Amino acid sequence: MRNRVLMILLIGCLMSGSETTLRAAEPTKLLLAHGAISNNVAPWWIAKEQGIFRKYGIDADLVFIIAGRAMQAMLAGQVLVGMVGGTHVTNANTGGGDFAMILGVENKLDYIFVAKPAIKSGEDLKGKKVAIGTPAGSASMATYVALDHLGLVPRRDNIVLLGIGGVPERMGALRAGSVEATSLSPEIGQVVVSEGYRVLVDLGKENVPFQSSGVVVPRSLIKTNPQLVENIARATAEGVAFVHRPANKDIVVRSLGRNLRLAPDRAENAYQGLIAALPRRPCPSLEGVGSMLKLMVQHGLNAKAAQVKPEELVDMSLCKKFEDGGFFRSLY
Fold first, then answer.
1. Phi/psi-derived region of residue 209, left when phi > 0, alpha when psi is between -120 and 50, beta in every other case
2. C-alpha–C-alpha distance, residues 161 and 287, integer Å
3. Alpha helix stretches (DSSP H) within the chain
4. What is the per-residue pLDDT across 146-192, written as a single tens digit (0 to 9) for each?
C-alpha cells in the first residue's frame, strides 16, 4: 500500500512538472509597432511569417502606427517595442524618456522627393504646398533635405509644409492635387512615378548618412528582461539574414507584394531596393545618428538635439555580443 501511495505521488510530481514545462514553453505575446509602411519592415514580416519569432518564444503581433504616435504609445507604456526612426527616439529622450535603439535596419535617407508632372524644378515649388509626415519623422526630414538640395527655404520661398500623415494619406493628397510634392520610400514612390509624377530628388543617390528605422526599446526593459530584448534582436537579425539569402528571394518578394500591396513587378523592384539598402549586420550607425542630430538642429526640429551624443541614443551591447560570439557570422 505504501509503495502504491509513493508511486501515485511520483506520477503526480512528474505530471505537475510536465505542466510547468508546457506553461514555460508558451510564447510571450508581444505587440511590435512599426512606424512606416516600407520595405525595411520586411525583417519583421518575414520573422513572423516564417516562424522565427516563435522560435525565440515570441508570439508577435505586428501593427502599423505612424512613427510619431508609435513613440507616444511607447512613452505611455502601451507598446514595448517599436521600429521607428532615430528622430523620434531623440524627441522622446530629450522630453524625459529613456529609450535606446538596439538594431538599425535603415542607415541612410533612402527616399524620393516626387512632384506633380507640372513641377519641373525647385523653382516651380515656390509658393506651393508640400506634404510631410509627422513633423520630426524620417519622411519629413527627407523633405527638408530635398528642399535644401533644390536651394529652397520654406519660409523664404512661401512653401507650405502640411503634416498630412502616413504614406497613403500623402499619396492621396498628391493625387488629389491638394499638394504639389512629397517624400516617399522608393518602393512606394515607384507607383506614382509610373503614373507620370516626377522625381525631383533621389536622396538614395545622395547617400546621406542618417539613422532612420531601427528596433527601439525602453532602457528599463533591457535591465528588467534582457533575455526578451535579446530574443527580439536575434529574431530580427535572422529575419534580415532570411531576406538576404538568394534562395529565399521568391518568398521575400511575395511577402513584400502582400504587405505593401504591390503588383509582382513592383514587388520585385522593392526587393532589389531592400537588398541594396538593408544592412546584413543590422546595427545602428553612430555616424548616421550624428548626422541625424545635426540635421534636426539645422532644421529647427529640436534644439536640445545639439546636446545629445550619438552614444546616448543607442545600445550597441547586443550587436557587440552577436559579433564577438559569432551569431552574425552563423546567419550567412
1. beta
2. 28
3. 2-25, 42-49, 52-55, 67-75, 86-94, 138-149, 167-176, 186-193, 203-206, 219-224, 226-244, 249-260, 264-277, 286-298, 317-324, 327-330
4. 999 999 999 999 999 999 988 889 999 999 999 999 999 998 999 99
